[in-house]
Automatic annotation (TrEMBL):
Top-level taxon: Archaea
Protein name according to UniProt: tRNA (Guanine37-N1)-methyltransferase
Residues annotated as domain SAM-dependent methyltransferase TRM5/TYW2-type: 81-328
CDD domains the UniProt entry points to: AdoMet_MTases
Length: 329
């Protein structure tokens, strides 16, 4: 097919391509070609090409670019999708629209084994939800995150891929030989990478299914010797680790304050707490800091090292993290 191209010497090709990209003139449906020292860059509108390149416009046969078909290509609109391993998650109240999106996902080139729609909010102590299986036949998958693999079943455990960047931020602060307690560990997205950095991690969770997956994931990632998985309420199962932790992860943002007495009992002489909270935008960090200071009492000096908004949670509410250092007085 004959299309308008800007023809320039090969050595100028990248600079010209970049200029055309800046003004949104690249024709992404056709391939750039090189022939006998000349590069041919397809453009969408030859009349808008910069004046100093106007005399370089030629008509030339160009191969069509082999592009993956996306769900948006098939639907005619961009659906809201979330990837978790080979599961694609939609969030649609309209059943007909949800199934239309699922059909498009499965017909597209998007790697996918199952399409799920959220059928309930996150509920109960175990923070799980119900799902409608729109395509495929299961809710189990293997999610990959910053070089680690996590097997999980979304119908049995809580897991949010949206927190990957925040998890990575915290994990990168961990040094070898640290003693870490992950108080609400889930399937191990903090615990396993921390162990991979050389830490010894005690990982607790009330959800026995999550602990089973955590143990599998520790094996899967080669760190089973540095992860101790404990099923049960962290307030009742960790007395043997009192006064020992160099780092505590408290990712239970709706109710972490209820576990601060236990956190302080686990802290060693110098301990960093990663405390997650959900608070109103008017004072997103104050309630958490006050709760930590009250729990620490006179036993520890408390220094807030980082205040970080992780994401918006609801109108006027933020999911936040406080990195707080406790130093025994």
């Amino acid at each position: 097919m004959s299309v308008p191209c800007v023809a320039v010497e090969r050595e100028r090709g990248e600079a010209v391509r970049a200029r055309l990209a800046e003004v949104d003139l690249l024709d992404g449906d056709h391939e750039i070609a090189v022939d006998d020292g000349t590069i041919y860059v397809p453009v969408t509108d030859p009349s808008a090409v910069p004046a100093d390149l106007a005399d370089r416009i030629v008509e030339r046969d160009a191969a069509e670019r082999d592009r993956p078909r996306t769900p948006a290509d098939l639907l005619g609109y961009e659906p809201s999708l979330e990837r978790l391993g080979d599961i694609v998650i939609v969030d649609e109240d309209d059943d007909e629209r949800a199934r239309e999106i699922a059909d498009a996902v499965m017909a597209s080139d998007l790697p996918c084994a199952t399409v799920l729609n959220r059928a309930s909010p996150i509920e109960g102590e175990l923070r799980v939800r119900e799902w409608d299986v729109l395509a495929g036949n299961g809710t189990e998958t293997v999610h990959r995150e910053y070089g680690h693999e996590f097997a999980l079943d979304v119908a049995e455990v809580y897991f949010s891929p949206r927190l990957a960047t925040e998890r990575h931020r915290v994990i990168e602060r961990v040094g070898p030989d640290e003693r870490v307690v992950d108080m609400f560990a889930g399937v191990g997205p903090y615990a396993v990478p921390m162990a991979a950095r050389g830490a010894d991690v005690v990982a607790c969770d009330l959800n026995e299914a999550a602990i089973a997956y955590l143990e599998e994931n520790a094996e899967r990632n080669g760190v089973a010797d540095r992860v101790t998985a404990i099923a049960g309420d962290v307030r009742e199962t960790t007395a043997a680790y009192a006064d020992s932790a160099d780092r505590l992860v408290m990712n239970l943002p709706h109710s972490a304050d209820e576990f601060l007495e236990t956190a302080v009992s686990l802290a060693g002489d110098d301990c960093v707490i990663h405390y997650y909270d959900i608070q109103h935008e008017d004072d997103p960090f104050g309630p958490g800091e006050r709760a930590i200071r009250a729990a620490a009492g006179d036993e520890y000096e408390v220094v807030v090292e980082t205040e970080r908004v992780v994401r918006s949670y609801a109108p006027h509410e933020y999911n936040v993290c406080l990195d707080v250092r406790l130093t025994r007085s």
